[in-house]
């Protein structure tokens, strides 16, 4: 059964209440266009580089305004509402970068905590240590929905193909990659990585993104995308500003891709042996 999916592009700021209102406005637009699955970006609820200021407004899951609003929107429109992620305060003082999928009755069907932490130093002087504030997740899941088998990732996870392969082998037909990609790395790698994950696993990829210059000074790359199992970009947004993009998702296209190139079935286990290079008088045995 095909279904209409939407990816919401946002430019979240430092106030979760304002971000919740922006999310609601864009989700209503997507639902009005017939989307039954709607995804928002990573860190929908807040983008705040000042960790002390962020912690001052973060709450636990039970009191989080984004979680509450996501549940209400799912129930109001009878959709599967995917909050790509938001920052959730944990009891130990750290934070979870946690995604939520709500069913049409508003119940939480799945939680996913970002597994791979963005600890990098970029050429333009940007330095990020996500692990200093966030607790990494350790569990990947494939969720059976009425319209598709869905796998979950968040942003930096896209650089770890093993996560996607494991979920594809487990039956995922749609992979979700809500993101807040830095502008510099996005210009170099965003589309390439998303299309590669779609092609090598023969799955749809839906990636809602943050876009533009944010209140805390950072810049994100935007270009939210929906990609089919052959690597074709079905829908994309611009580099800045809010957007709603939609595409028809036909899980039958996943089987068709797997039938053409059955690399999931053809994969073989192998060992890796590290050996010495060439030596004087010949090649090492």
What's the arrangement of secondary structure elements?
Layout: E1 3-9, H1 16-32, E2 37-39, H2 51-57, H3 65-77, E3 80-89, E4 95-102, E5 108-113, E6 119-121, E7 127-129, E8 142-144, E9 149-152, H4 161-169, E10 174-176, H5 183-201, E11 204-207, E12 211-213, E13 219-221, E14 225-227, E15 233-236, E16 243-249, H6 252-260, H7 263-266, E17 278-279, E18 282-283
Parallel strand pairs: 1-2, 2-3, 9-10, 10-11
Antiparallel strand pairs: 1-16, 3-4, 4-5, 6-7, 8-9, 11-14, 12-13, 14-15, 17-18
Helix pairs in contact: 1-3
Can you walk me through this structure?
This protein is of the alpha+beta class and 285 residues long. It has one domain: Nitrilase/N-carbamoyl-D-aminoacid amidohydrolase (4-Layer Sandwich), CATH 3.60.110. It has a 6-stranded mixed sheet. Strand 17 and strand 18 form a beta hairpin. The model has no long low-confidence stretch (mean pLDDT 94).
